[in-house]
Amino acid sequence: MAARRLIWAAVLSVGWCWAATAAGPSKPTRVPLVRTTDMDVGQTCEVELCDGSRATVKLLDLKETRDAVRGAVRRAVVTVEVNGQRTELVAATYHLPKTIAGVRIDCAVTRGYIEDSRTGNTWGLLKDARLRLWPAGSPLVAPDTFGFPLRMQLFSSDTQMANEPVFVDGGEVPGRRETYYHYGLDFGGAEGLIDVLAATHGLVVSAAGKTLPGFEDTPVAPRYDVVYLLDDRGWYYRYSHMQRIDEHIVPGVRVQRGQKIGVLGKEGGSGGWAHLHFDIKSRQPSGMWGTQAAYGFVWEAYVREYRPRVIAVARPHCLLWTGQTAVLDGRKSWSATPGRL
Ligand SMILES: [Zn+2]
């Protein structure tokens, strides 16, 4: 009897092992258009772009400006040389890539946003700055693979986008030592009234706290109000604070771009604001999982799908003592008619 039990135990454990190794993420089948390089000041590197052309990039300088109230990074500017031409880039926080010397380039994040971050190194950055490159004229993400993640005419945020310090939940109270730099995109919307859509074709890896087996070494952190999708680039899309997740959105199901997955809400650490938190995680040059800055991707998709006449942007927000002066810079705004802002 004991021997028979032993055989059964062996069969069960072999079966379990097979199931565990057969599960988990499959290899990415699509190469993204974006190329990423993490650099220290003084470093030079050559980057092969998605069209096979090459760009030489030098990181010449990094300047981070902190506010006087909490000492959080409010602005980070890198000076770079691209194919021999020098330019400045403001890191993330509502800035789109710049075109210079045949290249589109942005700076997604810099070291200061990591150093005193309450959420740790969510960017997977171990150097001074992260630069991302595309050929001039290239979309940031292939248009047939990415869509606006909401059925909503407004592209707006009551809360914060990109690296902007989080101010909901008392996040900006003076005296706090660490800062919660936001790493995703928050879209404000009416609770229970806005459809949340799959931004990409993908596999539902996790929904409402349940996750497929074999996804331990991934960015997935299951929660009752959260859905994770995995696309064929190997990117993980997180949707948080959902009021409802559609009942057929369960781990293992495949979804199509534009398909409804649930409804916008204010669940789970939303600070009481109805919004969708949307972020993408991918492997970074450090080998770590890290945020794939998606503001430009979403901007492109929104302009393509909703054809707005104007997008007005005067963010990020400022934090200052009485008597100080704030500058809200509207130059990041956009008009469908060039020169008519
Ligand atoms: Zn958020």
In short:
The chain has helices at residues 2-22, 112-115, 295-306; strands spanning 35-39, 44-48, 54-66, 73-82, 85-90, 98-100, 103-110, 129-135, 185-188, 195-197, 202-207, 210-211, 227-230, 236-240, 244-245, 254-255, 260-263, 275-283, 289-291, 310-311, 334-335. By secondary structure, the chain is mostly beta strands.
Fold and architecture overview:
By secondary structure, this protein is mainly β. It folds into two domains: 35-135, Tick-borne Encephalitis virus Glycoprotein, domain 1, CATH 2.60.98.10; 145-308, Glucose Permease (Domain IIA), CATH 2.70.70.10. Helix content is 11%, strand content 31%. The chain is built from three helices and 21 strands. The chain has helices spanning 2-22, 112-115, 295-306; strands spanning 35-39, 44-48, 54-66, 73-82, 85-90, 98-100, 103-110, 129-135, 185-188, 195-197, 202-207, 210-211, 227-230, 236-240, 244-245, 254-255, 260-263, 275-283, 289-291, 310-311, 334-335. The strands form five sheets. Strands 9, 11, 12, 13, 14, 16, 18 and 19 form an eight-stranded antiparallel beta sheet that branches. The protein is globular and about 50 Å long. The model is unreliable at 1-22 (pLDDT under 50). It binds zinc ion (ZN). Residues 182, 184, 186, 277 line the site of zinc ion.
